[in-house]
Amino acid sequence: MTRAPEIADYHRRLSSEDRLICDLLADEIDRALPDAAAKVWHAHPVWFLDGNPIVGYDRLKDAVRLMFWSGQSFAEPGLVASGSFEAAEARFTSASEIDTDRLAVWLSESRVVQWDYEHIRTNRGLVKRTSF
């Protein structure tokens, strides 16, 4: 699968270990969400379904953070709440830490469990559930 040029550029700027993590995450996300639009958004790769951010990752000081915008509502365990809305995350310091089976479940859930971040401004800062 051909990676979006801006995401490939993001990966090129990473250390070799971080690149392994991000390459694995991007490959799994692309496989599970082939109809998602991928782009660099707020300086890191994010995948969108119908304009709504679903999943993305970014390099932090001590790890690569994988974030699901609606992850607090997922049934599959393993994600940690992040921020004041419905987002949840997992952090990785090595590609070997990524459980691709669990990741596949999270990605499957991300398709059907969504909060409407696309319209957060028009909803006066509130996120509403769009699917169950």
- Number of strand segments: 8
Mean pLDDT: 88
Strand arrangement within the widest β-sheet reads 1-2-3-4-6-5
Helix/strand order, N-terminal first: HHEEEEEEHEE
Residues in helix, %:
25-40%
Please summarize the sheet with the most strands. 6 strands, antiparallel
Q: Distance between the terminal alpha carbons, to the nearest Å?
A: 30 Å
CATH topology: Aspartate Aminotransferase, domain 1
Just name the CATH architecture: Alpha-Beta Complex
Shape type: globular
Question: What portion of residues belong to β-strands?
Answer: 25-35%
Separate helix tally: 3
Q: How many domain units?
A: 1
Which features characterize this protein?
6-stranded antiparallel sheet, 132 residues, 29% helix, single chain, alpha+beta, 3 helices, Aspartate Aminotransferase, domain 1, globular, two-stranded antiparallel ribbon
Give the SSE map:
Blueprint: H1 5-12, H2 16-32, E1 37-41, E2 44-49, E3 52-59, E4 64-68, E5 80-81, E6 88-92, H3 100-112, E7 114-115, E8 129-131
Notes on the protein architecture:
The chain is α+β, with helices and mostly antiparallel strands. 29% of the residues lie in helices and 27% in strands. The protein has a single domain, classed as Aspartate Aminotransferase, domain 1 (Alpha-Beta Complex), CATH 3.90.1150.200. The relative contact order is 0.16.
